[in-house]
Amino acid sequence: MVRMPLHDLPWWRWRANVRSALHMLSDPVLHQERWLAAVPGYGDVTDAVYRLVEDTWLDNWSADKYVGSVFRDSQEAALVDVAVLRVLRIMHQVGPDAPVSAYLQHHGWPEAVRAAREAHVRLALNDGEDPDAPPRSLDELAVLLHSL
Question: Is there a contact between 109 and 80 (Cβ–Cβ < 8 Å)?
């Protein structure tokens, strides 16, 4: 597989935040071992959603708007759109300040995790990275964002 460096896109930092959020949202092990256990360094569901939509405004418009700048193609954008909608629907129902357990117990959570996983896998593979590697901590993400 040919590695496509993350920083080859104009808004690669936005992509890194979106990827990080999708990775964490798609990882049930992280949910149990980091989020539920309140282990420092990985934020929580609200933090992940914020990283997913903060710069991109994906809570207001389609990821397709960012093809060529954040996303490599319309297939990536479509998968991200589905994940964003699923996660935001739950956030609006349980509230942004709800405990992690409220998200994990929500009837729609497994579908949100699946959608985030599909988007995460596509983006990771397109960047030449292993989608099954454990998510980076927020400190590791900060180093990546400030490395170039």
Answer: no
> How far is it, in rounded angstroms, from Cα 93 to Cα 118?
23
Cα(65)–Cα(36) distance, rounded to whole angstroms? Answer: 34
Crossing angle of helices 12-25 and 74-94, in 10° steps, is 60
Residue type at 83 in one-letter notation? A
50-65 as b/e: b if 16+ CB within 10 A: ebbbeebebbeeebee
Considering the entire predicted model, what is its pTM? 0.94
Over residues 100-129, the pLDDT tens digits come to: 999 999 999 999 999 999 999 999 999 999
Of the candidates 30, 9, 31, 6, the one whose C-alpha atom is nearest the C-alpha of residue 135 is: 30
**E-strand spans in 10-122?**
none
Indicate the residue type of 135.
Answer: P
Rounded to whole angstroms, the Cα distance separating 115 from 110 reads 9
**φ, ψ for residue 67 (rounded to 5)?**
-65, 125
How many Å apart are CA 113 and CA 140, to the nearest integer?
22
Spatial separation of the C-alpha atoms in residues 119 and 117, rounded to whole Å? 5
